Amino acid sequence: MIARARYRALETKAGLVGAPLRHGRIIGFTLPRVEAFAVSEHDHDHDEGSRFSEVELRVKALESLLVEKGLVNPQTLDKLIDTFETRLGPRNGARVVARAWVDPAYRQRLREDASAAISELGYSGMQGEHMVVVENTPQVHNVVVCTLCSCYPWPVLGLPPVWYKSNAYRSRAVIDPRGILKEFGVELSDDVEVRVWDSTSEVRYLVLPERPAGTERMNEQELAALVTRDSMIGTTKL
Amino acid sequence: MNGVHDMGGMHGFGPIQREADEPVFHYRWEARTFALRQASGALGKWNIDIARHANERTPPEEYLRATYYERWLAGLQRLLVENGLVTQAELASGKSERPAPPGLVAFPPESVDTAVRTGRNYRVDASVPSGFTVGARVTARNINPIGATRLPRYVRGKRGIVDRDYGVFVFPDANAARHGQKPQHLYNVRFSARELWGAQAAPKDSVCLDLWEDYLETA
Predict the structure, then answer these.
(1) How many beta carbons lie within 10 A of that of residue B178, not counting itself?
(2) pLDDT of A74 above 70
(3) Of the candidates A6, A97, A182, B123, which lies 20 to 30 Å from B105 by C-alpha distance?
(4) What is the chain A residue with the closest CA to B185?
(5) Looking at beta carbons, which pairs linking A118-121 to residues 24 or more positions away fall under 8 Å?
(6) Nearest to B193 by CA among B173, B215, B208
(7) Residue of B nearest to A169 (CA)
(8) Which residue of A has its CA nearest to B95?
(9) Within its chain, how far is the Cα of A118 from the centroid?
(10) CB B216 within 8 A of CB B139
(11) What is the DSSP string of chain B?
């Protein structure tokens, strides 16, 4: 109960000021309304603790069962986790974007066959087999969602953040993209077309944000450092 | 399946909750669950559409209560039991009561890198005629299959325009039911926001979905 009260307070705060949740750890636990997580700061909550332990024990039991049956090799699990924690992530996508900004021929190849153009930089594979890059312009702003599950271009962005997988984002992105953009600090006039891409197939979408003004003298590496994950999902502009 | 996973257009879930400097996994059990799912999938007993549908079949109350990786865990347990790899009793006890079906080999760590870099190919190299050309006006069919589908409720019966023809792909509805790949053209179809949501929507906005031949009819 303490946890719920604290959670609601944070939720209200975040809703009012649009502030990201900055402090402490996110803890998986059950809540009726919003995607189940809450922030734990200094205090200890026994409900959260016991629930967390329960799921942790379930996973441990499942892993040891599958290992005992010879169906899973624990070193394979370690290797998979390491790959997704260290090799894949939005820095990959940022390199693609920066290259497209400085090299018109590369940009053209991205338009024609994004998977091939992205693999030129060494990024390919699971959940990025059929890539399509959608370009933001002064007239069109693109936003990517997966309303049915959590489809996301792993080779260029890594695994998705919790908010991308949340009920709130999945439900609202197609009906209220401008409301979401506002929460992310982006206001667009009605003259701009907001184009939402619902990832219903194995095609994966990457947004190519507009190159910010005043970056003409920057090199490719400096430009890549400007590119954020959210700008490649389309929920922010640069 | 008209499940709770089909969330596009629902109200009531509140603002988007963001977290600064978010880690890839918040807990080791989430990382282990993710990896267990990938490693089990590599045994080849199910395909991606069967796996997705396993999550979707989580009862709605449970689905909404669960965190993301709890959904993955529930789906994985369902897949393992339904494919005869483990029993409910074994899941409960964590102890093996009988050997795994013969011929299954655990996915080796040295193959992880290649598997992740290579992925799979969902495009089918088959000559299948396309029923629609780019620019065609189409209606998303009003179908309500009990099994897996990638046709969200919010576009059914709505009119859009074919924007791109992606070529021939595996059809998930058939693939999830183990009825073969039923390869067919996959299109990107653009719907105006006003067609989907009415006059409240901004006039120029649109929503684009990847839709297979079987989901569409001429408008």
Answers:
(1) 10
(2) yes
(3) B123
(4) A201
(5) A118/A155, A118/A156, A118/A206, A121/A92, A121/A95, A121/A96
(6) B208
(7) B16
(8) A65
(9) 18
(10) yes
(11) ---TT--TT---S-S---BTT--S-SSHHHHHHHHHHHHHHTTSSS-HHHHHHHHHTS-HHHHHHS-HHHHHHHHHHHHHHHTTSS-HHHHHH-S--SPPPTT--PPPGGGHHHHHHH----B-------S--TT-EEEE-----SS-----GGGTT-EEEEEEEEEEE--HHHHHTTS----EEEEEEEEEHHHHH-TTS-TT-EEEEEEEGGGEEE-
| Amino acid identity for residue A16 in this structure | L
Query: Measured between CA atoms, how close is A224 to chain B, in angstroms?
Result: 18
Q: B86 at the A interface (CB within 8 A)?
A: yes
Look at residue A16 in the predicted model and tell me its pLDDT: 31
CA A222 to chain centre: 22
A149 included as an active-site residue? yes
Q: What is the dihedral of CA B121, B127, B130, B134, to 10 degrees?
A: 60
Question: What is the per-residue pLDDT across A83-125, written as a single tens digit (0 to 9) for each?
Answer: 999 999 999 999 999 999 999 999 999 999 999 999 999 999 9
Cα-based torsion angle of the residue sequence B49, A112, B184, A126 in order, rounded to the nearest 10 degrees: -20
Give the gap in angstroms from C-alpha A136 to the nearest C-alpha of chain B. 14
Measured between CA atoms, how close is B78 to chain A, in angstroms?
12
Mean pLDDT in residue range B48-54: 97
Q: Are A159 and B24 in contact (CB under 8 A)?
A: yes
CA A89 to CA B117: how far, in whole Å?
Answer: 14
**ipTM > 0.85 for the complex:** yes
For CA atoms A175, B173, B5, A202, give the dihedral sign: negative
A146 catalytic, yes or no? yes
Residue B144: Cβ within 10 Å count: 11
First to last CA, chain A: 41
DSSP character at residue A85: I
> Residue A51: what pLDDT?
54
Please check the confidence at residue B13 and state whether its pLDDT lies above 60.
yes
Distance from C-alpha of A166 to C-alpha of A169, rounded to nearest angstrom:
5
Say which range, A33-42, A201-210, B4-13, has the weakest mean pLDDT.
A33-42
Please write the tens of the pLDDT for every residue from A128-183: 999 999 999 999 999 999 999 999 999 999 999 999 999 999 999 999 999 999 99
* φ/ψ bin of B180: left (φ > 0), alpha (ψ from -120 to 50), beta (otherwise): left
Catalytic annotation present for A199: no
What pLDDT was estimated at residue B177? Answer: 97
